Queue: 4 jobs
Job 1
Amino acid sequence: MYTSPSRYVQGVDLIDRAAEYLKPLGSSPLIISDEVVWGIAGEKLEASLTEDGMEASHEVFGGEASMNEINRITEVVKKTGSDVIIGLGGGKTIDTARAVADHTDLPVAIFPTAVSADAPTARVSVIYTDEGVFDSYLFYNRNPELVAVDVRVIANAPVNTLRSGLGDALATSVEARAVARANSRRMDDTARPTLAGLALAEKCEETLFAYAHQALRDNEAHIASRALENICEANTLLSGLGFENGGLAAVHAIHNGFTALDGDIHHMSHGEKVSFGIGVQLMLEGAEKAEADKYIGFLQSVGLPTTLADIHLENATEEDLYKIAELACSDSETLKQMPGQYTPGDVVEAIRAADSYAKALKEKSA
């Protein structure tokens, strides 16, 4: 089975012509965004839609993709009579918009304001508790009807968001290859990965190595360049289709394992935590030096975390590491998609090994 959004649109100043892509879906969109994003792009999107004859309204996202927040906004939709949901913002806003659309049986359009993760194209939401602890995955019958990426908006987003997306996107090929080697099923357990998914994951990786450094420089200078366009597509479309049709493995399980801890790690972005998880999976797999150097070296070259200190866990205790590992090895997690079987003890040793390897590589390149 292969799954994807009905339509993916990317271009410069896309928000100015958003109605062109939204009108086939409905006439009264509800825009879900947080307060910060509303000031950056929400007001402009609402004005653009209104000018083109649509009856747009908006609802402020509370900050956590929890069932309580999803249910709250679902009730808002029922009162407003909106006929299409727009998720405008980052990963948790997008996950919430997707869930609200599913609860109300309405089409959903995703307008990411940063390419910090590959969530926009997916038919799954990551659900957290109100306190931000990973809770579950929600799978839907369909992908978003529309994903629209305005490269001008991305060019003016904080460069750290683009950097974060590089980490999430790099994990796509690392995990998809592991799932393919294991002949496992995808994260929703409905089907085996497709060759198309693996090909997209590999193209995603190729694009990152070719354009990431230039795209970071252009993002810093707010230039909507071709390199930035290519990385927007890699971080969003190629990575999104690659993970959904190729599968997830240990990397994202480690990311979710981090939610078992309190502290400064929760100030790190999704892609930053995923970046460290790439090293952990490589160590679990027993990656040879050339492979480990390639991936961990790339992450370090673009400024992404590869050591425990980088993710504020340099003082993590043995108990802390086992909490991460036990959650990562739980039945609901994607580490089971890996070739072979791993215990929490194996994962703890891989965490230590990833930290040690990355520190040595940093010292060598200093």
Note: Strands lie at 8-11, 29-33, 57-60, 84-89, 108-112, 124-128, 134-139, 146-150.
Job 2
Amino acid sequence: MYHASIALGALDLSRMPVLTLPPERKDAAVGAFTAYHTSITKLKAEIVSHNTPRDVNLWTTFFLGLFELMHDMTGEGWVKHFLYGTSEMLQLRGPEAHVAGSGRSFFLTVRVFEICRALIYSEPTFLCQPEWMSLMAKIWKEDDNNHWHPKEPLFDLMITCSSISHRQVHSQAHYILLLALLELAAEGFVVRSALADWYANFQKWSADTGTPEYNHNSVLATIYFHGISIYLSGIYDYRTQFNKIPTPTISHAVVQNHVDEILRMTEISLKTANLAAVLFFFPLRVAGARVTTARETESICAMLGEISTRGFVVANAFTADLKSLWRQKGI
């Protein structure tokens, strides 16, 4: 973990204006990649010598993944570290290792990153398994410091949306196919209702506890609420097999309201909130798929550009992907 931390710091330093001479920047970059490879080598040796991954191994894979977000514009390096490193280690340790202590802290930190990975890259996540879904209830039962925030049940709903999205219907029999589609639609209606209930309860909780609108956890929760509301509709919007049955889609006007809020709150958050900029990739990508005006595309490009300047060059891949989509839509 020490070398992974050095790699992150050196890579960030190599891009800062404090280093004005090219040789200085080059030395910092070389130091970053040297530390990165040293960390990977030591991590491999550590994994071989221990049957159960230690906390330090988990944090190392997480930091190495962040390094990839800062270095690899495609995002593939981060996905590999997270999917085959962090996520695999979490599963090897099992949910009980993350109920309390340092394991709990790590799980709560990376949980949202795993959720966003699954949603952004349209891949399944182990978090939808019953034993991992029930982990959160155990965590908050053990929490004596009352760190709970309403964003946690919202994250559960995001996991459920990801699960619905990845369940494909392959039956050749028309009757069985229809039943399966109706079942998926019914699950979507349950989630849609739960999202509405969540938002009402969240507003009440905020008022009752006096939590300000721009509390960083509340900001993230609100932005993700708007993002997952659009995402849930998209599960059914983009699949023609659902055209003939009722589904929990939302109107263009409602989608636009969600888009407006994502853009407004994300822009403010990037300027004022102490949140990791990479957490905004999911809502910006979802909103970007639904924008209809050049002004909106410019706003999203500006925000992704800001995230890129903060070191996360993978933002450029999101920009390129969205620009290609917008050209197809004639925006």
Note: The chain has a mean pLDDT of 88.
Job 3
Amino acid sequence: MDRRWLAALVDAIEQAARPEVRNVPCDASLISAAAAHLARPAPTFGHCGSAYSLRN
């Protein structure tokens, strides 16, 4: 199994947790775009409940 995506995720989380990164203010348009995205209803994927397959 390719775990590069997990290593990249951990690296991104560690970078975001650094104090010099956390002290930078976030753009208000990014916050409103994220809030709008999260306000949308969750998609449904037919009878299986997911767009992903365990058979990949």
Note: The mean pLDDT is 85.
Job 4
Amino acid sequence: MLVATTNDLPGHRIVRHIGMVRGVTVRSRNVISDAIGGVQSMIGGRVGAYVKLAEAARQEAYDELVAHARDMGANAILAMRYDANEIMPGVTEVLAYGTAVVVEPA
């Protein structure tokens, strides 16, 4: 699966436009991450416990996005983006979305 944040894919032409696809996950922090994150935030700098959690959530949403596009018959996703919203304190939704297309080499 080719995935790009751009609206086109250099070296390829779009032969079929399928439509919007998405992948979503909802993740929550846990007591251990909060404790480690709290200590790291007092020290300052990068809060590794939360970075790890954010990266895991983005990867899960991305994997769901690719699976959705593949199920619809796409071989590429254009204009891919992430969005995140806090549903409640400590619970975050991460959405990956884009436009599913079929491309072929130009």
Note: The mean pLDDT is 88.
